[in-house]
């Protein structure tokens, strides 16, 4: 296959790789500009990725486990944004859906029946349901009342945050920042993972994430429901004209999108913490999920890869801080990646310009 | 009645930055560009103003001059960052929601990164003294907000320039055909929203707190964004909307003085502005007041 400039510009995957490289480039330059050594940033990233500490030659598999564990909520929130995106919606509400899922999972963990094998399943199912309710509400508002999903999701994020505080403060043993410990039956820890990854927090959530990725792919690519949704995303009027229930598509897609983010909240609540949290601010997984989906072009595979990248960056933060690199550089890299994605429309303009030049040459216009 | 009057200063303190930002957002959307980066631009302005003020304070610059310069720097830096959105949305036909989201994400990184470099902490150093209230108990930011509203109204509705700007948001093709430079107009509008959001960020940090942290802006820019659509894209409407949201937010403080409300968890009042916004948007649905070309890239000669 010949690698042409044209083909590169048209390939979503290639552009995503380019955009990520550019993001890192800006980050590297910035670190150098403030007088730090960018090499330390990459050492931290290498350690987060492989567990290998290049400075003392020691290997610690815990870092691999943590990178995978951090990726889980990123991938799920990315799926949430991506699913809505394929229907032509911009789901900034992943954060709120995530918070609601987390809150309800905590509630079920603290108050639910302590039956081995059932307790955590119930908590996760409730998290998924409440996430999809929170997302579905946005869909209904959009479809029935034409409320812009951008504004309504932002409002629902903050409503979720404070609602979560109100609920969590009523939980048993609640102080200003945490509740009582969860019973064992509510946890989704995996002893095998804990052992082989040297006590990382990697847990059964990763299996749920993999199932979610497959479900995403299956609904989107293999069902008529997904077809209708994609058609709605491409051209709403054409979809309506060919008999696809557009209103239902929009509401349902937001509900499914919310389910993914709700699941992320449930997994974080039961997997990464042994007690319920009273949130004082947002975890930002939902917001980062927007970037994850954009980098991954809203596909199942792309979002998974992008989520792994973001998980790795998050894991590298503490390592960077230890090497005197402000960890916020990772946020800057992520922000720049999204800005570069917005700028990719320039590539289309460039291609149009090239086409025009070529055409002019062909017909002999000077 | 005296109690309501007593609340007025704190309501004004909270409303002023939201209103300033919302007016900027309104000008921007009037020209046909949607700017959801208001939140991030406020954060950048707030961080700049807080850092500038504390550094000048340490250097012994007189208080009034320092405050003025700090606000001015917030204004300028907010404008600079909005240029990213302008280039993306106006020159490159980018998706405006994506580039706005990018700036919002970037702002959390940039502000705290700068604090780490300048102050070796994840927040700016506390300044000794912020803005002071006047004899009526009102911060100067309230007067700035009034000036911004009046100026924006004159600009948009009383000058030919404003008519041209609005034309770019309604029908850019028609505007271009009568010789209006759509790109220039939109640049002006986006940068206006940037400088105003930056200024407003400075107002928040210098009146309501003593340093910049990642929590300082906490959704105010998003509330301003909602105020634009709830206020139906008119200066008077946006002012009303900003007051509604600001009052709801001020309730958190006010409720402490009213025994009957004190029993409720303070989070109930935190939720209020967002619920009010959401309900308001549902109620005002149906008729579309938005500028017709808002959010759509304009390509010369495309249609």
Share of helix among residues of chain B?
Answer: over 70%
Integer-rounded radius of gyration of chain A = 22 Å
Low-confidence stretches of chain A: none
Determine Rg of chain B (CA atoms, Å): 19 Å
Write down the overall geometry of chain A: globular
Integer count of domains of chain B: 1
The CATH C-level name of chain A is: Mainly Alpha
Strand order of the largest sheet of chain A: 1-2
What class, by secondary structure content of chain B?
A: mainly alpha
Rounded to the nearest angstrom, the distance between the terminal CA atoms of chain A is: 33 Å
Strand content of chain A: under 5%
Largest interface: A-B, 51 and 48 residues
Fraction of residues in helix of chain A: over 70%
Describe the structure.
Helices cover 73% and strands 3% of the residues of chain A. Chain A is built from 16 helices and four strands. Chain A has a single domain (5-347), classed as ABC transporter involved in vitamin B12 uptake, BtuC (Orthogonal Bundle). Chain A has a two-stranded antiparallel ribbon. A two-stranded antiparallel sheet of chain A has the order 3-4. Chain B is mainly alpha-helical and 303 residues long. Chain B has one domain. Chain B is globular, with a radius of gyration of 19 Å.
